[in-house]
Design a protein that fits this description.
This protein is mainly alpha-helical. The chain contains 6 helices and 2 strands, in the order ααβααααβ. 48% of the residues lie in helices and 10% in strands. The radius of gyration is 15 Å and the shape is globular.
Length: 105
């Protein structure tokens, strides 16, 4: 969280993205606009299949590929989970935001 705060303090304008609800919640007081990308489960699963290798997370593409089924299973539960990475958490943040906001489905 300290890194996020330092980033926001250093940059007068910024765009962040991601599924980490706790980070989004920390950024919201500094946010001028909120966009909720909510394409649905099938689109998310299809996007995972096109995900490029993430060398900052995995030492090689095979290591990432070995985690693919776990990732798909985790994404499949997005609309049922109640953690800070869930639809429920994202929906709560979006609905409570008082500034300019848009949801894309």
């Amino acid at each position: 969280m300290a890194d996020l705060g330092a980033f926001i303090d250093k940059h007068p304008a910024w765009v962040i993205e991601g599924c980490y609800g706790d980070l989004a919640e920390a950024a919201l007081p500094h946010c001028s606009e909120l966009i909720f990308l909510n394409p649905g489960l099938e689109a998310c699963l299809a996007n995972n299949k096109r995900r490029p290798w993430e060398p900052h997370k995995y030492t090689n593409p095979g290591e990432q590929d070995a985690m693919f089924e776990n990732l798909q299973a985790w994404v499949s539960t997005y609309y049922q989970r109640m953690d800070s990475w869930s639809y429920a958490a994202h929906r709560r943040l979006f609905d409570a935001f008082q500034g300019r906001k848009t949801e894309h489905t």
